[in-house]
Amino acid sequence: MSDQLEELTLINRPEKSRPLGLLFWICVGWVGLNIFGAIFANLLPLPDPLFQNYSAINVGPGIHHLLGTDDLGRDIFSRIVFGSRVSLAVGAGAMLIGFGLGAPLGMLAAYRRGRFDAIFTTFMYVLLAFPAIIATIAVLSFWTPRALVKIIVVIGLASVPLVYRVIRTATMGIATKDYVVAARIQGATDTRILFKELLPNVAPIGVSFLLIGIATVITLEGALAFLGLSVNPPTPSWGNMINESRTVLAQNPWLVIFPSLALCLFLLCLNFIGDRLRSHFDVTEVKL
Amino acid sequence: MARYLIRRVVMLVGIVFVISVGAFYLIHLLPGDPAVVILGTGDSPQNRAILFKELGLNKPIWDQYFIWMRNILHGNLGTSFISQTSVAGTIRAALPIDLELIVLSQILAFATAIPAAMRSARKPDGPLDRVLGATSFTLLSIPPFIIIVLLVLFIAIKLQIPHTGPSSYVSFSSDWIGNLESLALPAFTLAIASFVVYYRVLRSDLIATLQEEFITLARSKGLSSRRIMWRHAFRPSSVALLGTAGVNIGGLLASGFVVQYLLAIPGLGYTLISAIAQSDYLLVQGIVLVVSVGVIVINFLFDFIINLVDPRISRE
Question: What's the CA gap between B100 and A19, in Å, rounded?
Fold first, then answer.
């Protein structure tokens, strides 16, 4: 008896999870700083990102222009801060669509099972087989003229099957747990089980996948911008800036190095936060 | 096995059908009269008549689809009214470059990822594993389009290595050494992206496999650790690796587009982006169709190979 009791307490004792660590909070701070910059770019004491100063072309980093200027004399630092708006808007907007459609469907399919699940899962797997980036390139090249909203919608819709799969797999692992079965036997309504039993347990997996998803979506937008398929110049975006620097690589390498650094640091932080959260919540790795 | 294969083939046909409808419908996403947009600079009464006949534009949309499908099944993807060349011919000329790029990058990626993952899995959390883990995690956050720009900046522009810069592509038939030089940076870029994924997947799978009882048995028989790693652990773990490689193909092709665009290597990606810039919509449609179907078929082939490696999968 006492043995059994001990075993029970052993199981129930919450495992001490690894502390999040300093690096985690540095990353959170960096992401926060980027979001702050993107929202308040207008109010910050920054030069106009579109202003072309022909007396200061291809200037290196210095006191007047923190990160130098580009081949049209525009301030690189200001363009990077304003450019973060595009990346953040695409990241947030596309994931809003992806999670808004994919997550409820995935949870419902995993909870209800049966025909509903079979139809949706087959449908989503067919969509998943379609290479997302090629589909986005295809749709964006035909759906002209290009605008930020269209890019967000196309990338968002392309991410729905992926979100669906992750959330469905995560929910299925939880829907078979004893406490969910117990709740159902007690006569809890479907809504109650979905919101009170399943949602709180799926949420941590969802959040860590959300961060990695945002990073993936921002990378995709960057690649599209690099190919000239995202927002039109002169609107600055990190991908646009890297694309524009191609022609003056030899003369002004700063032009590619700074926006690349901004993009990579931001992605690294998002990936790191997502990864750390996943291990913190002790979530067994869901196949992404 | 046979039943599994039949199920997969039916699924394959279904997916290809969905893709063909999607690719067909792209033309109708264009704003305004599709004929005007497709003809572009080649708009003349004769061309207009040819286009209407080829696409059946005055017929109902389902008839248009069947006409289009019948042409494709005869290997006819249409004629571009902008470059006056057949779409199928253009694709046939560009495709080998993409294939060469992918093969080169995959050789590099497997040749580095497999030994690295084995070293890591032998001592998880050891110094080497930590270094490789941190490196692969960092590389994961550097998109291919940044890697290629930086490589071009440092190797082609700063070090002046021949054949590596933009617009210096050499065809395989004219000079194969020059060809390999001109594909070195793109292949390396794609290899980095694949390496990160393969290394992480194979490492975690090997660590799990190495805890199995048959490995303990092999150890107690006194087999060398090299033999255990390759003969006993690698084969079961290679299933995960192959699965990842199959899924990776689509992303790999897309990254290939990006590196070709920067270096003006005349593969499918460069052709596609130029076609978009010139509003050559029939060519864009043809490339999208060929690439999507190609990715699906390659995925299917990988599934089949995985089955040969691990026959249990088809019995599930």
Answer: 47
Centroid of chain to Cα B212? 34
Instruction: Please list the alpha-helical segments (H only) found in B210-280.
Output: 213-220, 225-227, 235-263, 268-277
Query: To the nearest whole angstrom, how far is the Cα of A145 from the nearest Cα of chain B?
Result: 9
Q: Is position A113 within any domain?
A: yes
Q: How many domains does chain B have?
A: 2
In angstroms, rounded to a whole number, what is the distance separating the alpha carbons of residues B50 and B213? Answer: 69
| Local confidence pLDDT in tens for the 288 residues of chain A | 444 444 444 444 444 556 778 889 999 999 999 999 888 888 877 777 777 777 767 777 777 767 777 777 788 888 889 989 899 999 999 999 999 999 999 998 888 888 888 888 888 877 777 777 888 888 888 787 778 888 999 999 999 998 998 888 888 888 888 888 888 888 888 888 888 888 888 888 888 889 889 998 999 898 888 888 888 778 888 988 888 888 887 778 888 889 999 999 999 999 999 888 877 775 554 433
Contact (CB<8Å) B145/A271 = no
**Which of B73, B98, B129 corresponds to the end of one domain?**
B73
Q: Is residue B239 part of a domain?
A: yes
- Is residue A28 included in any domain, yes or no? yes
Which chain B residue lies closest to A275 (C-alpha atoms)? B137
Contact A197, A140 (CB under 8 A): no
Question: B145 vs A134: CB contact, 8 Å cut-off?
Answer: no
Q: Is B193 exposed, middle or buried (0-12, 13-18, 19+ CB in 10 A)?
A: buried
Q: Does A21 touch chain B (CB under 8 A)?
A: no
Flag if A133 and B250 touch (Cβ within 8 Å). yes
